[in-house]
Amino acid sequence: MMIKGLRRTLVVLVTLAATTAVAAQASADTPARVTGVTAADQAAALAYWTPERMRQVGAGSEDKRESVARHWPAAAPKGVGRLFVTDVPGQDSWCTATAVGGDVAITAAHCVWPGYTRDDQRIRAVNVVFVPGYDRGKTPLGIYAARAFLVPESYTQHSSPDVAMIVFSPVAGRHLADAAGNQRLSYDTTAPGRTATFGYPGSKTAYGETLSWCDVPATPDGSSGTWTSTCDMAGGSSGGPWLTGFDPATGAGTVYSVTSKGTLTVDETTGELRTTALFGTTLDGDAQSLYAAAAKL
What we know:
Largest sheet: 10 strands, mixed
CATH architecture: Beta Barrel
Number of domains: 1
Strand content: 35-45%
Number of helices: 5
Helix content: 10-25%
CATH class: Mainly Beta
CATH superfamily: Trypsin-like serine proteases
Distance between the termini: 41 Å
Order of helices and strands: EEEHHEEEEEEEHEHEEEEEEEEH
Number of strands: 19
Shape: globular
């Protein structure tokens, strides 16, 4: 058994605490590390992620099909979409993210702060774009380029809490939440009970091309201060929302956690990796401060 971040990438990475500075940094009284993206780099990201490249990034996935998670049969819930990233050094990758107001989306920190290679070389996240409602190469609500992403300062030191906010540039003057809708955030959920968890897992079920979900109870994981559930979505589901009070008819609920890691085992019969449980980051005052900083950018 191993616990691993569920960001889907095609190279072997070791996620360690980062200690070097990045393009921009928030003021000392804001507990966030901020990476800015130039207009030229945003344009390059939009040009890079063609529909063909989006469909290809998960084509080599080999994780076992899920047994608990299942295909979401309708349009994506409000604000939920696929987050595309290129690791340098490394290859193309993806996570899941959710619009939470204005131009801001929430995801896992390790999706945009990958850490270091085994040779202690810093990995940078570039070509960061978000496609709300992504489905098999279709981008029904537009493609949004990141103009900044924020992780807690503590994450750069000891990899916790695993949450990030990304600020996107409007498309044709339209803000992300106006086009895609958004979910509410909760920073003090204590007993979520049954939870709707969404993600774009890179298993053999769909290779990251369609949205999956679980509708199972979540409980506190006392050893790590996170939430856990029997949801078994594979890599690519990192950053996906954990929603309490979710209404399938409206596609709305309240995000109280995002997928951070999964328990992985090897199927002794087929040799395939399979996820047996998910762990979600607790959203608390750190996440609230992070969102407040992102909303000002």
